[in-house]
Design a protein that fits this description.
It comes from Emergencia timonensis. The protein is α/β, with parallel strands linked by helices. Helix content is about 35%, strand content about 20%. Helix 1 packs parallel to helix 10 and helix 12 packs parallel to helix 15.
């Protein structure tokens, strides 16, 4: 017999965005019942506690300056500037709240103020206490704080103390609708496969982005929430920007930052440095495309001369050591990772590795999706919010924006959903819909397939990973990639499942293929190069600033792509003609 849980607000996803939404909603009205359901264990799951632990903060900069810089040099005028201004205005407050929820886990100076450091700061020496002194660039209108990587455990404790209910090791696979609005969700225990049906006045999706399980550090992003929203009928936006790459070594699959400063072809020519001139806030699309061009021209393999990377002093004093930031847990984590990854590395060959960050669920400034009763927060909707513009967020060429947007959007979603449920009725869903979801999820056990998930997965990787498919795009390659994805969708009936874990793996495969189809299809519609989006056959900007949306038709994985003009007349920063 399936367990039934009734709650006012259901938050799906127990990493930072979900926690921020749950805490904000609960503190807005302590009488509201808030439940967080997490596929693994809330406080440990997700990506928030597995990265560098740096977070964007505005500091003394003006929000308007942040928007102007980001729009011109990063988002390439495809930003929703109103949404981004709201984001910038909340950055400092977001840091303060996260420090409060985590029990003071953000590093501070002796006077209690936050210790900050701007990206690309250069070491100038040491002070009388042996602490590094940096020459910080003043042209970036933001700064960074650092948080220890065990912070999410404390955030969970804070949420529990506030009265938030947690349901762990239970993965939501689909949403329920009643009377035209979201009314709950169907989930299964990842260990024994038992079903739980949630009934709620409103739902917040905070399940992360789609990263296709290619790079190990970002593998938690598997897109099930994106697929669930699609099947429920939610609209998507900016799907074509879900193609974040970073530099990696094939010997360890760990990312390296700043490679473009010291990227050499096999002839000994530095071919990356030219792409770092002018404003260069982070890894850029053109240096990655240069890797492809050099390789095709026969000048590969490509090499990374780490000793020439001007970021190394910065990185070596902020990660895996306490020379500047004091973060014992993070230093141990990164120290072990660096040792395991680099101590036995024998080659300087470097390649682009696809991380993905497909985050196209469309939301407005209040984090409302296009479905009544459904809100979203964090990586699942970062691209779909359009705040970041023509880049794959996070990081969207601003390191620390992943934590910042998760915190920021979670708080906004929490306030919005709290207001929504005050007048929202409880809608009773059709039990037949629960049965249909159960049939879809359980199908791989019954269909008699023979292919295991881990044997199917490389087929997706072979389509998504090539840079010429997912970053430096061209119509013939996009069409070929889309054809391969549709062929793989036709092969889903070959998947084999023997356990609950297998069933979730099959659900993830379906989600990956759906996101890939959205990605390649919308990429074909954008016939220009803008920001991170590059088309070999359309190297210039188009004349009109356009977002592209994808609306499900209700027939399988079919959808309709349509242009959506930006309200550029309302925005202060405009592209020069």
């Amino acid at each position: 017999m399936a367990e039934r849980i009734n709650t006012d607000i259901l938050v799906i996803g127990g990493s930072l965005a979900g926690m921020a939404a749950a805490i904000t909603a609960k503190e807005a009205d302590p009488e509201t019942e808030v439940t967080v359901v997490e596929k693994y264990t809330a406080g440990y799951a997700g990506k928030a506690n597995k990265g560098a632990g740096i977070m964007t903060m505005l500091g003394d900069a003006k929000p308007e300056d942040y928007v102007a810089y980001h729009t011109k040099y990063i988002g390439d005028y495809l930003n929703d500037q109103e949404a981004q201004l709201q984001y910038a205005e909340n950055l400092n407050r977001g840091v303060e709240l996260l420090d409060k929820w985590s029990g003071g886990k953000i590093d501070k100076k002796e006077d209690g103020s936050f210790k900050t450091l701007k990206w690309l700061a250069q070491v100038q020496g040491k002070d009388e206490n042996g602490q590094f002194i940096f020459d910080e660039p003043d042209h970036f209108p933001w700064t960074l704080v650092a948080i220890d990587l065990d912070f999410m455990v404390n955030v969970r404790k804070y949420a529990q103390k506030a009265g938030i209910r947690f349901v762990d090791r239970t993965g939501v696979v689909d949403l329920l609708l009643a009377e035209g609005k979201i009314s709950g969700a169907v989930a299964y225990n990842i260990d024994d496969g038992s079903q739980t049906v949630f009934q709620a006045k409103a739902v917040v999706l905070a399940t992360g982005s789609q990263n296709y399980r290619i790079m190990p550090m970002w593998s938690p992003g598997r897109g099930e929430g994106l697929a669930a929203a699609f099947r429920a009928g939610a609209k998507f936006r900016n799907c074509e920007f879900g193609s974040f790459y970073n530099w990696i070594s094939l010997q360890n699959f760990e990312s390296s930052m700043g490679v473009e400063f010291a990227l050499y072809n096999d002839k000994g020519e530095n071919v990356g440095l030219a792409h770092t001139q002018g404003e260069h806030p982070d890894v850029d699309q053109n240096s990655l495309a240069e890797w492809y061009k050099q390789t095709v021209a026969g000048n590969g393999p490509m090499h990374y001369r780490q000793q020439e990377n001007p970021l190394m002093p910065y990185l070596m004093t902020t990660l895996a050591c306490d020379d500047y930031f004091h973060r014992p847990f993070a230093d141990t984590f990164w120290g072990s990772l660096f040792f395991n990854a680099y101590s036995q590395q024998t080659s300087d060959e470097i390649v682009p590795g696809l991380i993905g960050e497909f985050s196209g669920l469309m939301v407005d400034k209040d984090m409302k999706t296009t479905l009544d009763g459904l809100f979203a927060a964090g990586d699942i909707c970062y691209g779909g919010s359009a705040a970041a513009g023509a880049v794959p967020p996070p990081p969207g060429r601003v390191r620390g924006s992943g934590l910042a947007f998760a915190q920021n959007s979670g708080c906004i979603a929490g306030r919005s959903v709290s207001d929504y449920v005050k007048n929202a009725p409880v809608c009773t869903f059709d039990e037949g819909d629960v049965a249909k979801i159960d049939e879809r999820f359980m199908k791989p056990i019954k269909q008699g397939g023979s292919v295991k998930v881990m044997d199917f997965l490389p087929k997706i990787h072979r389509v998504m990973q090539p840079l010429e498919n997912s970053l430096y795009r061209k119509e013939e390659r996009l069409l070929a990639a889309l054809t391969e994805i549709e062929k793989l969708q036709a092969e889903l009936e070959t998947l084999k499942a023997e356990s609950a874990h297998d069933l979730f793996g099959c659900n993830e495969i379906q989600s990956m293929l759906l996101c890939a189809k959205l990605f390649f299809t919308t990429s074909l519609h954008r016939k220009e190069s803008r920001g991170w989006f590059l088309r070999e056959d359309y190297p210039d900007h188009s004349k009109e600033l356009t977002w592209y949306t994808a609306t499900p038709t209700g027939e399988g994985t079919d959808f309709v792509v349509a242009p959506m003009k930006l309200p550029i007349d309302r925005y202060p920063n405009k592209e020069a003609e």
